[in-house]
Amino acid sequence: DTGVSQNPRHKITKRGQNVTFRCDPISEHNRLYWYRQTLGQGPEFLTYFQNEAQLEKSRLLSDRFSAERPKGSFSTLEIQRTEQGDSAMYLCASSLGHYNEQFFGPGTRLTVL
Amino acid sequence: DAKTTQPPSMDCAEGRAANLPCNHSTISGNEYVYWYRQIHSQGPQYIIHGLKNNETNEMASLIITEDRKSSTLILPHATLRDTAVYYCIVRVVADTSGTYKYIFGTGTRLKVLA
């Protein structure tokens, strides 16, 4: 399968702990996006990368959130000092250039206890 | 803020056409309309997109009104596997690099009935 992959698929953590998610985009795609989806809502844009450069961050991305894409391939999203309000599905998408449609991964479901 | 409004839910009989409406009255002239669907516990799946002309592919047809203030996604022969949440999305420019981001609404939950 050469689609977007995300790991882990599920993560349960205690409030205050740090968590890190990984996204592997489709190999030739230079743009990578992170979204967050809460129950009953559509995905909300968080940030995106063009190659290794992070070019926009939503106001939803508080100081506790950090994303990287060090070599322009896979990306990580880290949440420090997790809060119960961080519980959501975190989706990654990638696209070939800015004009093309985004392909989404299966998501990582985070539950903060 | 979402730039689209959709009915929260719809039912469709298996084998019949499913027509999913979407209002995007504030859309700008260069903003595209995209449709994705999301089956439970999976990531959104691309269906189709358009600017002002009607579009058709192997999955669906997209009808955009002449004033571009609304559109309809048509699944010509709905099957049980088409049961999903369908999102009508306006693609907006993210920054000066020209990269785009999607603004999702809450979608329409389509249930295809046997």
Main beta-sheet strand count, sense and barrel state of chain A:
7 strands, mixed
The tally of strands of chain B reads 10
User: pLDDT under 50 segments of chain B (min length 5)?
Assistant: none
Provide the residue-averaged pLDDT of chain A: 92
**Helix and strand run of chain B:** EEEEEEEEEE
Strand content of chain A: over 45%
Helicity range of chain B? under 10%
What about the largest sheet of chain B? 6 strands, mixed
Based on the structure, what is the oligomeric state of the protein chains? heterodimer
Evaluate the radius of gyration of chain B.
14 Å
Give the helix tally of chain B.
0
What is the SS-derived class of chain A?
mainly beta
Describe the global form of chain A.
globular
The secondary-structure element order of chain A is: EEEEEEEEEEE
The proportion of residues in beta strands of chain B is over 45%
N/C terminus separation of chain B: 36 Å
What this model shows, in words?
The complex is a heterodimer of chains A (113) and B (114). Chain A is globular, with a radius of gyration of 13 Å. The model of chain A has no long low-confidence stretch (mean pLDDT 92). Chain A contains no helices and eleven strands. In chain A, strands 2, 4, 5, 6, 9, 10 and 11 form a seven-stranded mixed β-sheet that branches. With 114 residues, chain B is mainly beta. In chain B, strands 1, 3, 4, 8, 9 and 10 form a six-stranded mixed β-sheet that branches. Chain B has a four-stranded antiparallel β-sheet with strand order 2-7-6-5, with no helix packed on it. The radius of gyration of chain B is 14 Å and the shape is globular. Chain B starts with 8 loop residues before the first strand and ends with a strand. The mean pLDDT of chain B is 90. Chains A and B meet through strand 4, strand 5 and strand 10 of A and strand 4 and strand 9 of B.
